[in-house]
């Protein structure tokens, strides 16, 4: 369950900054980008902590499952920082990539990290040891990587327009597809139940794949032994889709774009078919929208933009209810964990 709504109200009236800094954070919201800083925010919009990250710009952020660490992807390092203290020094540095780290995340039990880089590799890191434990060579610059919902596959999008899926148990690539040759894929996502995988590209298209034959044509299911089948193509935006993400409840797909908007798509299933219907366009940023993240209850979304702002949106209403103002250059990464501590 989300603690976002109640915390947003309480911070408006009950807590001083001094008291806030002595308490474990119930809502962890962090943003980062090209001004070499990571900023932590109160839900009310006040920045309560800034970490200087002098090595490079920051391309991606991720909060550990136990809510204790924030991982930051830079060029070419990954650093982790304590969430609930004011310590500015990194806890750990993961070194091994040779170019921009463009995506990262944690396994659900927090025992390892995964990352993708413009150096053309995916890496897995044991959080308790130095150095990476596995490396997969994609063959082109990796623009994004995510972990499948069942935690057993890495899904990567690359600059050559290839969607690649690696089975971590079999330790091999099990699926490759180039839905639009020579058009770079920018982002990938898996639905919470693991049924669907989506990949978005520089033409503004989103390609929907199914992990089963459900929703695929009979001929496609009969002639393909691949673990994934293309279901449909969404012509989502007229410019680059920079981020795509399912809501935690699986009812929505968000697409953030260089056209300065985030679109929300309702995901509806009927018998053996699935439909993605555009329901809201979140407009208000003045430049590219690079990243977005849903609240735990899927009721809110936070976006990050080149206009140097992050915005909090009410998903049902499609309106912005808070702006986070403090960065001096493009904000390209946002991380949020507002799930209740007791689960």
Oligomer: single chain
General form: globular
Show unreliable segments: 9-22, 213-224
Question: Structural class, judged by helices and strands?
Answer: mainly beta
Q: Terminal Cα separation, in Å?
A: 7 Å
Proportion in helices: under 10%
Strand element count: 28
The radius of gyration over CA amounts to: 19 Å
Share of β-strand residues: over 45%
Specify the biggest β-sheet: 4 strands, antiparallel
Summed over residues and divided by their number, the pLDDT gives a mean of: 91
Number of alpha- plus pi-helical segments: 3
* Strand order, largest beta sheet: 3-2-1-28
What is the topological layout?
Layout: H1 4-13, H2 17-20, E1 28-33, E2 37-41, E3 47-52, E4 60-63, E5 69-73, E6 78-82, E7 92-94, E8 101-106, E9 112-117, E10 121-126, E11 132-137, E12 142-147, E13 153-158, E14 163-167, E15 172-177, E16 185-190, E17 196-201, E18 205-210, H3 218-223, E19 229-235, E20 241-246, E21 252-257, E22 261-270, E23 273-283, E24 289-294, E25 300-305, E26 309-314, E27 319-325, E28 331-337
Antiparallel strand pairs: 1-2, 1-28, 2-3, 4-5, 5-6, 6-7, 8-9, 9-10, 10-11, 12-13, 13-14, 14-15, 16-17, 17-18, 18-19, 20-21, 21-22, 22-23, 24-25, 25-26, 26-27
Walk me through the structure:
The protein is mainly β and 343 residues long. The protein has helices spanning 4-13, 17-20, 218-223, and strands at 28-33, 37-41, 47-52, 60-63, 69-73, 78-82, 92-94, 101-106, 112-117, 121-126, 132-137, 142-147, 153-158, 163-167, 172-177, 185-190, 196-201, 205-210, 229-235, 241-246, 252-257, 261-270, 273-283, 289-294, 300-305, 309-314, 319-325, 331-337. A four-stranded antiparallel β-sheet has the order 3-2-1-28, with no helix packed on it. A four-stranded antiparallel β-sheet has the order 4-5-6-7, with no helix packed on it. Strands 8-9-10-11 form a four-stranded antiparallel β-sheet, with no helix packed on it. The radius of gyration is 19 Å and the shape is globular.
């Amino acid at each position: 369950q989300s603690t976002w709504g109640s915390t947003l109200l309480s911070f408006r009236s009950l807590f001083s900054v001094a008291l806030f800094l002595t308490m474990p954070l119930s809502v962890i919201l962090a943003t980062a980008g090209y001004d070499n800083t990571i900023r932590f925010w109160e839900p009310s919009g006040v920045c309560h902590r800034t970490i200087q990250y002098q090595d490079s710009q920051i391309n991606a952020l991720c909060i550990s499952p136990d809510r204790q660490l924030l991982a930051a992807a830079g060029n070419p390092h990954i650093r982790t920082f304590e969430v609930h203290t004011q310590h500015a020094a990194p806890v750990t540095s993961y070194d091994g990539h040779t170019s921009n780290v463009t995506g990262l995340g944690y396994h659900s039990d927090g025992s390892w990290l995964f990352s993708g880089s413009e150096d053309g590799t995916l890496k897995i890191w044991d959080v308790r040891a130095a150095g990476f434990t596995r490396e997969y060579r994609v063959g082109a610059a990796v623009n994004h990587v995510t972990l499948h919902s069942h935690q057993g596959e890495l899904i990567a999008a690359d600059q050559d327009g290839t969607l690649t899926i690696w089975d971590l148990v079999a330790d091999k690539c099990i699926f490759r597809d180039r839905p639009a040759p020579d058009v770079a894929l920018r982002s990938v996502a898996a639905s919470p139940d693991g049924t669907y995988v989506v990949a978005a590209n520089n033409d503004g298209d989103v390609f929907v794949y199914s992990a089963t034959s459900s929703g695929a044509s009979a001929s496609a299911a009969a002639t393909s032994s691949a673990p994934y089948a293309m279901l449909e193509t969404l012509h989502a935006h007229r410019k680059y889709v920079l981020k795509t993400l399912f809501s935690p409840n699986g009812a929505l797909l968000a697409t953030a774009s260089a056209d300065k908007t985030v679109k929300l798509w309702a995901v509806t299933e009927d018998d053996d078919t699935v439909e993605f219907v555009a329901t809201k366009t979140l407009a208000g940023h003045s430049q590219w929208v690079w990243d977005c993240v849903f609240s735990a209850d899927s009721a809110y979304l936070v976006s990050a933009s080149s206009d140097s702002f992050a915005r909090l949106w009410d998903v049902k209403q499609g309106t912005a209810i808070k702006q986070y103002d403090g960065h001096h250059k493009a904000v390209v990464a946002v991380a949020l964990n507002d799930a209740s501590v007791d689960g």
